[in-house]
Amino acid sequence: MPSLEGHCWSCSCSRLKSKNISSATWLASKAGEMMSIITSLLSNACGSLDSLQVMHFARRGLVLFTVGGFLALVLNLLQIQRNVTLFPEEEAITTVCSSTWWVPPCCGTAAAFVGLLYPCIDSHLGEPHKFKREWASVMRCIAVFVGINHASAKLDFVNNVQLSLTLAALSLGLWWTFDRSRSGFGLGVTIAFLATLIVQLLVYNGVYQYTSADFLYDRSWLPCIFFSGGVTVGNLGRQLAMGSEEKPHND
User: Fold this and answer.
1) For residue range 6-17, what is the model confidence (pLDDT) as tens digits?
2) pLDDT-based confidence at residue 250 (cuts at 50, 70, 90)
3) Contacts of 178 by beta carbon, 8 Å cutoff, 6+ apart
4) How far is CA 163 from CA 75, 141, 148, 215, in A?
5) Distance CA 142, CA 73 (A)
6) Of residues 222, 190, 192, 191, the one with CA closest to residue 208
7) I want to staple 164 with a disulfide (CB 3.0 to 4.6 A). Which of 72, 83, 129, 221 is the partner?
8) Which residues pair with 133 in a beta bridge?
């Protein structure tokens, strides 16, 4: 009898152990399945978020490219009508504002780069730009920028130095009125320097030329135009980066 009882007891223990092992294995397999499902859901969510961010980024770049190309076409027309800028006749497109084919795409690409760079710099510095974050302010900034370009082509001064000082004051006023950020000022100065250097190289190689050049191969007021243009495109890029769901902040 003891041996029979011991045998039954050992059989029941082995059954319990095997049952516990199978239960633990089943729970582990179910936990693994749940973890795989959760991981799949998280990866799909991250993939969807990344795709949305890429689409938003591409949409902002397209808007900036279109605005930059259009402004370049209109403002270049002002310069050509006043004989400020001269292009070779064989490169001119008389049916499109007497400009050249490469001006709008080049300026549009530069506008897209600058407009996407401004919010990235703000995020990197940890200083989000909050001054006059509204579309009405952006539209006024664009209007003032067009006015500064119009003044550079239409206003007649005794010499280019007076015109350059006037445009420099207007450009600083544009930055103070619509930006007032250190990052905006620093990027504007950097853009003005690099763009002026590129223009010097283009004029030096005979791509086009400026009449009455007084700053090496171009005009002394050209850095002011690039500075104000950088601030304007930067504000547009910042506004686009806010997204449609974020409410604008008024100071």
Assistant:
1) 544 455 545 544
2) very low
3) 131, 132, 137, 138, 140, 141, 144, 231, 232, 235
4) 17, 21, 11, 13
5) 15
6) 222
7) 221
8) 249
